[in-house]
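Memo subject: From amino acid sequence to discrete backbone structure tokens
Keywords: amino acid chain, backbone geometry, structure tokens, three-dimensional fold.
Body of memo: The sequence and its backbone structure tokens, given next.
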Amino acid sequence: MSKAFTKETDAEDEELEAAEPLPAGLKNYITPDGLRRLQDEFRTLKQVERPKVVEIVSWAAGNGDRSENGDYLYGKKRLREIDRRLRFLTRRLEIAELVDPALQKNRGQVFFGATVTYVDSQDRERTIRIVGVDEVRHEQGEVSWLSPVARALLKAAVGDTVEVRTPAGPEPIEVLRIDYGRG
């Protein structure tokens, strides 16, 4: 079938799912903080952003010719973006499995939700927090539990040296500290 006859939302959904995949058979773990952030985003989009844009689109539609009406065209595009994000958040929240790092009993090893400080082969000390795929904030040192560094660190203890697979080859890192205080 020609692309001209496919629904725009189907193509957009496929693009979205390709951009943020969750590997088949793996659980969608999330921390309490990450769950709260996703729920807050969902509420804000649904109760604040969407109603504002609907109001603008309704007003712009009443202004006549829609083909050259910037407010109308931009508003419709923004509505599609909001609706697409709401669908994505709905699907992800439905399959989210809450894991509270504060309840971790084995605090001597690295598991989901741990904040880990390690040193690499160039003696650079780094601190990361291992979180779910939908809650990663790189600027705050958060990495997905599926990332190479997190996978290498899982089940390691303080003093252990593990190898991270990098494009340049295996990189040894040593675990200095493990903390489960944030959740």
Observations:
- The mean pLDDT is 87.
- Strands lie at 28-30, 96-98, 115-119, 125-131, 142-144, 161-166, 169-179.
- The chain has two domains: 3-98, 101-179.
- Helices lie at 8-19, 32-61, 70-95, 148-153.
